[in-house]
Structure formats: C-alpha cells, structure tokens
C-alpha cells in the first residue's frame, strides 16, 4: 500500500511540474512572448478534453483508493473537494467523446471552486487557518490531519489542488481553441 501512496504522490509531483510549465507559458504569453503558447496549443490540440478526463479519473480513483483501500477517513473539506472532482470524470469523458469543446467553458467553474477548497484545506493543514467545529467532528484529527506527507510537502489536498489546476488548464485550452492554431487543420464539427 505504501508503494501506491508514493506512486500517487509521484504522479502529483509530475502534475505539478506540468502545471508549473503551463503557468510559465501563460505568463510568457501575457508578456507578449506567444511562441511557447502556440507550441503548447499545437501539441495539445484535440487532446485537451481527453487530458482533462484522464486527470479527473486518476484523481477520483486516487481519492477512492485513499478512503476505500487505505481506510483514510475523509474530512469535511475532503468531501467538498470530492463533490467538485467526482462529476468531472464522467462529464469530461462525455464532452471528450462528443468533441464538445465549447461545453468546456461551462465546466470551468467546477475546478476553480474545487481548487479554492483545496487551498483552504492546505491552510488548515499547515496551521494558517483555524478549523471549524464541523471539521473537527468530521474525521479523526479533523481537517488538519495529514494522512500522507510525501516528499516533504505532498498531502491529499496538495494532490487535489494539482488535479484541479490541470483540469482547469486543459478545459481552458479546449474552450479557447475553437479555432485551430495556425498551421494545423480544424477539428471536424459534430453533426447536430
């Protein structure tokens, strides 16, 4: 079981590296350097919704592993994060199969809310925000208990925040890529 926890934490670190690179690309684009953004858009084009699905499915599976196999009791904030992540797995699969890129924009608020909850959970875990009584009653140790603590910083809310950030990024790429990047063919339109 320890190997699976470390493996999930390792996937989280890989996701954080990917999210960091995407943030750097966004900052460069905001500063007027658009070549990295164009490159990333070309590489991801047509796969954005599938990548959002893969991340949401792994996050959902990891969450279920922690509670159902490792027997970590989810606290109140973990449940709220699950409420945001669990629907994303089947819905992103549906929009990916249907190639419904425009539907991605309607999903964008879900990972934003989930990321906000993850940040708040991280603040509680690190003693920077107080726990509510509901948090204390929801699980042993409340919302501040770190069920995992890999590589000196990876906890369950860290993994959730990483997944929400990646899902948001992939959905955003899908939502804004209604027009194919220059030099690549436009995706086929779905028939009504």
Account of the protein in words:
The protein has one domain (2-176). The protein is mainly α. The chain has helices at residues 2-30, 35-44, 48-69, 76-85, 88-97, 104-107, 109-125, 133-138, 156-176.
Produce the secondary structure layout.
Blueprint: H1 2-30, H2 35-44, H3 48-69, H4 76-85, H5 88-97, H6 104-107, H7 109-125, H8 133-138, H9 156-176
How many individual β-strands? 0
Largest sheet: none
Structural class by secondary-structure content: mainly alpha
Strand content: under 5%
Give the low-pLDDT segments: 179-186
The helix-strand sequence is HHHHHHHHH
- Structurally, the number of domains stands at 1
Distance between the termini: 47 Å
| Rg (C-alpha, Å) | 18 Å
* Count of individual helical segments: 9
Helical content (DSSP H or I, runs of 4+)? 55-70%
Oligomer: single chain
Give the overall silhouette: globular
Mean pLDDT rating: 91
Task: Note the main attributes of this structure.
192 residues, mainly alpha
Write a compact overview of the structure shown:
The protein has 192 residues and is mainly alpha-helical.
């Amino acid at each position: 079981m320890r190997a699976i926890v470390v493996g999930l934490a390792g996937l989280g670190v890989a996701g954080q590296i990917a999210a960091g690179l995407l943030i750097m690309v966004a900052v460069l684009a905001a500063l007027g350097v658009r070549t990295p953004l164009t490159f990333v858009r070309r590489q991801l084009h047509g796969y954005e919704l599938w990548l959002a699905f893969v991340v949401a499915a792994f996050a959902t599976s990891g969450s279920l592993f922690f509670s159902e196999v490792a027997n970590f009791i989810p606290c109140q904030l973990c449940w709220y994060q699950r409420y945001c992540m669990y629907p994303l797995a089947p819905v992103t699969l549906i929009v990916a199969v249907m190639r419904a890129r425009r539907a991605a924009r309607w999903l964008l608020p879900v990972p934003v809310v989930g990321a906000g909850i993850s940040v708040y959970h991280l603040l509680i875990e690190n003693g920077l925000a107080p726990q509510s009584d509901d948090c204390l009653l929801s699980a042993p140790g409340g919302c501040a208990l770190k069920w995992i603590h890999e590589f000196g910083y990876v906890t369950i809310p860290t993994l959730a925040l990483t997944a929400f950030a990646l899902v948001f990024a992939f959905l955003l790429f899908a939502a804004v890529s209604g027009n194919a990047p220059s030099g690549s063919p436009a995706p086929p339109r779905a028939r009504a």
